[in-house]
Write a structure and sequence with these properties.
Elements: H1 2-14, E1 35-37, E2 40-48, H2 52-67, E3 74-82, E4 131-138, H3 146-159, E5 164-168, H4 176-179, E6 188-189, E7 193-194, E8 197-199, E9 202-206, H5 207-210, H6 217-233, E10 240-246, H7 253-261, E11 266-271, H8 275-290, E12 295-306, E13 313-314, H9 321-329, E14 333-339, H10 341-348, H11 353-356, H12 361-382
Bound molecules: adenosine-5'-diphosphate.
C-alpha cells in the first residue's frame, strides 16, 4: 500500500519543475528516503543553502500535492542544506544594524516609556517582581517547533515542582492559546493590570490576546515593545520560579530588542537538524551573545523519526547536526526531540504531550531537557556566563 504511494510521490516529483529550472528533483538525487506512516508522508529535499528561500514555495507546493494523493492525509517535507566545501555554517553571522525602538518611518517609540534599548546596559535591566528567573525559548526561523518546545519545556519545569508561567511573545504567530487550548481573554484586575490565564498548572499570557490577528504585520513591530512590557510588568503573575518566554522566530530587530529589554536569565535555542536551520540557529546564538544573555543550550527538534509501524528510528532530516554544532560552538546540547505525530497531534489538540502523557517517552525527553536547563541556570549562578566563541 505505502509502496504504491511512494511510487506515486516519486512520479509526481518527476513531473514538477523546480524553481531553479535545472531538471526534476528525483533525477538530480535531491529526494531523501520517503516514509509513510499513519497516512502521513515525510521526506526531505536537499538544496544548496543559498537556494533555500527560492525553494520554499516549491516545498509547500509539494506538501500540498502529496497530501492530495489517495491514502495520504498530510505531508512534512523539509529542505536540507547541501554541505558546502568546508561544511555549512562556517560563515560568521552578519552584523545586525543597531536597534532602534522607534518604528521605521519615524513613528514614535512605543508607549512603554522605556529608554532606547541600545542605551540600556543588559546588566541594568530591572527584574520583574515575583518572578525569579526568565528563560527565553528562541529559534533562528519559524516552523522548527519552538512554541511546541517552549510549552512542553514549561510543563516539564512544572512537573519538577516549580511554579511556572509562559509568556507567548511571538507576534508573528502567537500559538500558546492553541497549544494550551486557551479560549478566554485575560481579565483586567481593577483596570490597571491583567490576570494571566491558567492551563495545566501554567500561568499563561499571549501576544495573541493583545495584538489583533487582523493587524497588518508592519504595524505589529512598533507594538511589540509596549505589548511585551505590558505582558511582563502589568500582568499579575504572582510568585513564579520560572517564566518561559516563547520568542518570535528569527533574529531581527524585534527579537534583539526583546532580548535586550527582558531581564533574561538565559536562552534555549531550538533547531531542527537541518543545516539550514542550524545556520539560523547560529544567528540566534550571536544575537543573545550580543546582548549578554547566556545561551543555556540547543535543543534539536524533529531530530529523528520513529516509524509508528515498525518502531525503528530514521534520520529523515539528518539527525545529529545540532549536537555537533553545539559542541563546535561550546554551548550545551540539551537534547533531541523526535519527530513524532503524537507530538504534533497533542499540540494541535491543545493538550501538550508532557501534560497528557506525563509518563510517556516524550515527557521523559522534555524532563531531561528541563533538568539540563536548570543545571545550566544554576551553573551561571555560581560561575561567570560561558562565552560563546565564533570562528
Ligand atoms: P514554531 O514555533 O517554531 O513556528 P511550532 O511549535 O508551531 O513551531 O511547530 C510547527 C509545527 O510542527 C506544528 O504543527 C507542531 O505541532 C509541529 N511539531 C513541532 N515539533 C514537532 C515534533 N517533535 N514532532 C512532530 N511535529 C512537531
Amino acid at each position: 500500500m505505502s509502496e504504491a504511494q511512494k511510487t506515486e510521490i516519486i512520479e509526481m516529483l518527476r513531473g514538477l519543475q523546480p524553481p531553479d529550472g535545472k531538471g526534476d528533483v528525483v533525477s538530480r538525487g535531491m529526494v531523501s528516503d520517503i516514509f509513510i506512516a499513519d497516512g502521513k508522508a515525510f521526506f526531505s529535499l536537499s538544496v544548496a543553502s543559498d537556494e533555500a528561500e527560492r525553494f520554499e514555495p516549491f516545498r509547500r507546493e509539494i506538501e500540498q500535492r502529496v497530501a492530495g494523493i489517495a491514502g495520504i492525509a498530510s505531508a512534512m517535507v523539509a529542505l536540507t542544506a547541501e554541505r558546502a566545501g568546508g561544511g555549512a555554517g562556517r560563515t560568521a553571522p552578519p552584523p545586525r544594524p543597531p536597534v532602534r525602538p522607534a518604528a521605521p518611518g519615524g513613528r514614535p517609540a512605543p508607549a512603554s516609556g522605556a529608554p532606547p534599548a541600545a542605551a540600556r546596559p543588559a546588566a541594568g535591566k530591572p527584574g520583574v517582581p515575583g518572578i525569579d528567573k526568565i528563560v527565553a525559548v528562541a529559534s533562528g526561523k519559524g516552523g522548527v517547533g519552538k512554541s511546541t518546545t517552549a510549552v512542553n519545556l514549561a510543563l516539564a519545569f512544572a512537573a519538577l515542582g516549580l511554579k511556572v508561567g509562559i509568556l507567548d511573545a511571538d507576534i508573528y504567530g502567537p500559538s500558546v492559546p492553541r497549544l494550551l487550548d486557551i479560549r478566554d481573554k485575560p481579565k483586567s484586575a481593577g483596570g490597571r493590570t491583567m490576570l494571566p490565564l491558567e492551563a495545566y498548572g501554567l500561568k499563561a499570557m499571549s501576544m495573541g490576546f493583545l495584538v489583533d490577528e487582523e493587524t497588518p504585520m508592519i504595524w505589529r513591530g512598533p507594538m511589540v515593545m509596549s505589548a511585551l512590557t505590558q505582558m511582563l510588568r502589568e500582568v499579575e503573575w504572582g510568585t513564579l520560579d520560572l517564566l518561559v518566554v516563547d520568542m518570535p522566530p528569527g533574529t531581527g530587530d524585534a527579537q534583539l530588542t526583546m532580548a535586550q529589554q527582558v531581564p533574561l536569565a538565559g536562552a534555549v535555542i531550538v533547531s531542527t537538524p537541518q543545516d539550514l536551520a542550524l545556520l539560523d540557529a547560529r544567528k540566534g546564538l550571536a544575537m543573545f551573545r550580543k546582548v549578554d544573555v547566556p545561551v543555556l543550550g540547543i535543543v534539536e527538534n524533529m531530530s529523528y523519526f520513529v516509524c509508528p509501524n515498525c518502531g525503528t528510528s530514521h534520520d529523515v532530516f539528518g539527525h545529529g547536526g545540532a549536537r555537533r554544532e553545539a559542541d563546535r560552538l561550546g554551548v550545551p546540547f540539551l537534547g533531541e526531540v523526535p519527530l513524532d505525530m503524537r507530538i504534533r497531534e497533542t499540540s494541535d489538540a491543545g493538550s501538550p504531550i508532557v501534560a497528557c502523557e506525563p509518563e510517556g517517552p516524550h515527557a521523559k525527553v522534555f524532563a531531561d531537557i528541563a533538568a539540563k536547563t536548570l543545571a545550566g541556570i544554576e551553573g551561571l549562578n555560581h560561575a561567570a556566563a560561558p562565552r560563546i566563541v565564533f570562528e
